[in-house]
Amino acid sequence: MDELFADRPDPQPVVATRTTYAGLVWDVHRDRVDLGAAGIVERDLIAHPGAVAVLAIDDDDRIALVQQYRHPIGWRSWEIPAGLRDVADEPLLDCARRELAEEADLIAADFSVLIDYFTTPGFTSEAIRIFLARGLTQVPQEERHTRTAEEAGMPLRWVALDEAHAAVLAGRLHNPHTVIAVLSAHALRADGWRGLRPLDTPWLR
């Protein structure tokens, strides 16, 4: 039988490393990496804690999108709820539940793994797990998170999955985890959601 067609981990030896920049969220490391016959090379990388995102879909096949200002690009971007893994030892699912509640005031009864990916593996270790969330209810008003900074006044919009899919293909949505989630969910829904993965699926990290 042929080997399963898949990416595979194969970390090469790091013979030296130093932190060249320590930031608020991520650090920049300079590694000397032994590539065997190709020699030793120096590479800068952004060491990132990883993140989760949630495509929340209701009984009418509408997905929850929030609009957030993104300073590095100067755009207001429609996105699925997402956030950093910035709570020590927090399980991925708990992080997803927290972000869904904090950003969209939603609780989900059912979660599945939609897709995992590396955002830009050429220079950062950032990996994102995207969950599909169903069985949605509202967070009680008195328990809602107080949003600040870029999230203050952040609007929420319910958009039909088909409409979001068309917007992605037309180049009207650009946030990467939203684009990936919408394309994946649209394809999986057409197959009766059979490709959804269980919550114990090993993560990239």
From TrEMBL:
<dbReference type="InterPro" id="IPR000086">
    <property type="entry name" value="NUDIX_hydrolase_dom"/>
</dbReference>
<keyword id="KW-0378">Hydrolase</keyword>
<dbReference type="Pfam" id="PF00293">
    <property type="entry name" value="NUDIX"/>
</dbReference>
<dbReference type="InterPro" id="IPR015797">
    <property type="entry name" value="NUDIX_hydrolase-like_dom_sf"/>
</dbReference>
<feature type="domain" description="Nudix hydrolase">
    <location>
        <begin position="46"/>
        <end position="181"/>
    </location>
</feature>
<protein>
    <submittedName>
        <fullName>ADP-ribose diphosphatase</fullName>
    </submittedName>
</protein>
